[in-house]
Amino acid sequence: MITTLSIKNYALIEKLSIDFSKGFSIITGETGAGKSIILGALGLVLGKRADLTSLKNKEEKCIIEAHFEISKYNLSPFFESNELDYEDDTIVRREILPSGKSRAFINDSPVNLQVLQELSLFLIDIHSQQQTRELSDENVQFDIIDAIADNSENIQQYQSLLKSYKADKTKLNALIKKQGESLKEQEYHTFLLNELVEGNLKSGEQEVLEDEFEKLNNVEIIKESLDKSLAVANEEQIGVLYNLKEIKVSLQKIASFSTDYNLLLERISSVAIEFDDISDELSRCSDKLVNDPVQLDFIGQKLQLIYNLQKKHQVSTIDELLEIQTELENSVFELGNLEAEIEKLTTAIQEKAELLNSQATTIHDKRLEAIPVLSQKLIVILDTLGMPNVRFDIQVKQSETYYSNGKDEIQFLFSANKGTDFGILKKVASGGEMSRIMLAVKAILAQYSKLPTLIFDEIDTGVSGEIAIKMGEIMKEMSKTMQIFAITHLPQIAAKGNAHFKVSKSTVGEDTQSELKLLTVEERIIEIAQMLSGAVVSDSALNHAKALLN
């Protein structure tokens, strides 16, 4: 529950610090006195967006701080999961800087607004007139039934599965689209791949073929040159080899006379050996050289194929062509795998759909069990609120659509009087009836919820007299298990509170300020008397106020 609220430099509030107690607290004040400001400050603490218009003094920062006693609400896991220090007396602080920036802290640890909003769901429910109107919203109606049905865990499991199901559906649609696009390209890619495969390309092949082509294409001149070289090398008495041998014999005669001559002998001997080897190689090359027009034509065609493929694919090497071939193989292979992947994903989606249907049926069945409980409890409470003939016909039917909370569609039908047909709640219920129904709903939910604090903002709209007294009694009964605040204009409800706070507005010079004050017993009598009779308090109003308080 909230124990302390401190506000500095917010709207019409310069500085305020107020303590709250458990039980039933009343907040009253004239229209425009600042009750909405208090709720606005609380809203900031609970994670609502802020702007510079919130600052009373635009040159100073706004600070709103609230203390919450949370020891009984098992919130340690939330703090652990968000890496926050847990304290039984948790302090939430919100700061709005003159620059417009906003900061939030939980137990002095900075947090983003999402974390603050998530924590607020465990701390306070502020019920406004807008929420009363939302009672006709289907999601709100499901929330009410699911709270009684204890469907929270089932819905969480369903939502987790639904998220996975939708993700798979999205992936499947993308694969089907990709398959459709790929099929258009498959024929062309297959043609290109077959063309490369039929080419039987090998890395380094082009250089070898080009070298062989040059040889075969110039076989006559090569043969002529080789044979001439052999003749020059091996001609008797004038050939190179003969002359090298003659030089070697001459140097052998003088080699012993000087190391210089011996070195020359060694060098000419090496030259002779090397040239003899060259002569043998020339002979082998000449013997291997064959004029083969068929082979020449074959190589020419293969080279032309290579050149054509390189031009088509805009590359210059066989290695690059082989890379393209690999990419095309992968593309065609991937297309072949798409069908299998689509089939596998389709099966997974069908299995998840079966699980979703099963989970949705469980949610549906529990809702059906909860509806009579909700209807009966509403009838009992509303009977005490002056609606003795009220009836509800809450219909929940399964559809084929997966909604965020199951497959159900709901009709919340209502009849306030005997002899009248059922009608859709938002169409047939008056404002006063909607207020009473909403209070009854909140009273019922309080039995199933562990929420520490509930704030009613003028839930008494459209009611008065004895009904207002009954509404006050219901809120007081609720306050036995949770902290209840009621912002009200009705003295009958105000008199039921354990504590009474008054919001007032005053003018100091050129400045207007709002303040919140805890009333004493005497001040409370006067406040309720003024609510009964206006600014001028009569004796009868005072006596009536005392009677209400008693």
**What is the total tally of β strands?**
15
Taken from the alpha-carbon principal axes, the silhouette is: elongated
Which homologous superfamily in CATH is the superfamily of the domain at 1-123 and 451-519?
P-loop containing nucleotide triphosphate hydrolases
CATH architecture of the domain at 1-123 and 451-519: 3-Layer(aba) Sandwich
Q: What is Rg?
A: 48 Å
Class by SSE composition: alpha/beta
Largest sheet: 6 strands, antiparallel
Low-confidence stretches: none
Distance between the termini: 27 Å
CATH class call of the domain at 1-123 and 451-519: Alpha Beta
- The number of helical elements comes to 18
CATH topology (fold) name of the domain at 1-123 and 451-519: Rossmann fold
Order of adjacent strands in the largest pleated sheet: 2-1-4-5-6-7
Helical fraction = 55-70%
Q: Can you give the mean pLDDT? A: 86
Beta-strand share of residues: 15-25%
Coiled coil: 148-175, 328-355
Organism: Flavobacterium gillisiae
InterPro entries: DNA_recomb/repair_RecN, P-loop_NTPase, RecF/RecN/SMC_N
GO cellular component, one term: bacterial nucleoid
